[in-house]
Amino acid sequence: MEQLFIPGSIIADYFYLGLFLLVAASLIAGYVDAIAGGAGLILIPAFLMVGLPPQVALAQEKLVSTIGTVAAIKNFMKSSSIVWRIVPVGIVAALIGAFVGAKVILILPVETINYIILAFLPIGLLATLFKGVLLKKDDERGEIKKSAVAVFLTCLIVGFYDGFFGPGTGSIFIIALFVINKLSLLQASATSKIFNFASNIGAFVAFLIAGKMAFLIGIPMILANLLGNHFGSLHAINSDGEIIRKVLVVTVLLIIASMAYKAFSA
């Protein structure tokens, strides 16, 4: 199995600048992801900007996000915000959905994937924006709905999207848990991290088998993402979810800037 360590397209005079930008993007993405989801909306455009091939960009996002999410999960577990009753079924469904989604994207031509990324980025962005409107007021929630079928189907579908593309997955998970399962905003944010971690693992395995991981440049990015997730999750817990809506505004502005740069530099 051939592994990619440093893509040839960024081995040049701008390698260190590119690596610095990737580390900075990973730090910001970790912070944002722990609070509101949507790390891929920052990471994938950043990877494409420095010249990573589309499949490697999608795989690298899983490498960074999978490990980075651990810091957020640890803090949310300490705060008792995770709703463990619905976790087992959701984990299995997210793993299966993401693995299948990643296998599908791996068989598509590179040119097709470029178009898919351009088409799906607005979807992830809309999910993030929609969450900000939908969750504008986090009222007292009723009894949590624990329907195994609803949890399984939700995590299977969102997991497939995560493996196939990814950006916005955290936001979509939070919306689904808030609306379908009646979790509070903080509970939905915390529990979504478990499901997102599972879907990341499913996609990670598929990309690893295909040899699409750039491990060497991934190490500093993982460390930065862990740090971002750590502080982001602490901020979300201490603010009892209020910070989520505020960070969404910053996330959207960052994505617009990233997409504009990609469009005008093409």
UniProtKB/TrEMBL annotation:
It is a multi-pass membrane protein. The chain crosses the membrane at residues 12-29, 35-52, 82-107, 113-135, 147-164, 201-223, 243-264. It comes from the Bacteria. Keywords: Cell membrane, Membrane, Transmembrane, Transmembrane helix, Transport. One of its GO terms (cellular component) is plasma membrane. Its main location: membrane. It is found in: Cell membrane. InterPro entries: TM_pro_TauE-like, TSUP. Pfam families: TauE. Belongs to the 4-toluene sulfonate uptake permease (TSUP) (TC 2.A.102) family. This is Probable membrane transporter protein. It comes from Neisseria sicca ATCC 29256. The lineage of its organism: Bacteria, Pseudomonadati, Pseudomonadota, Betaproteobacteria, Neisseriales.
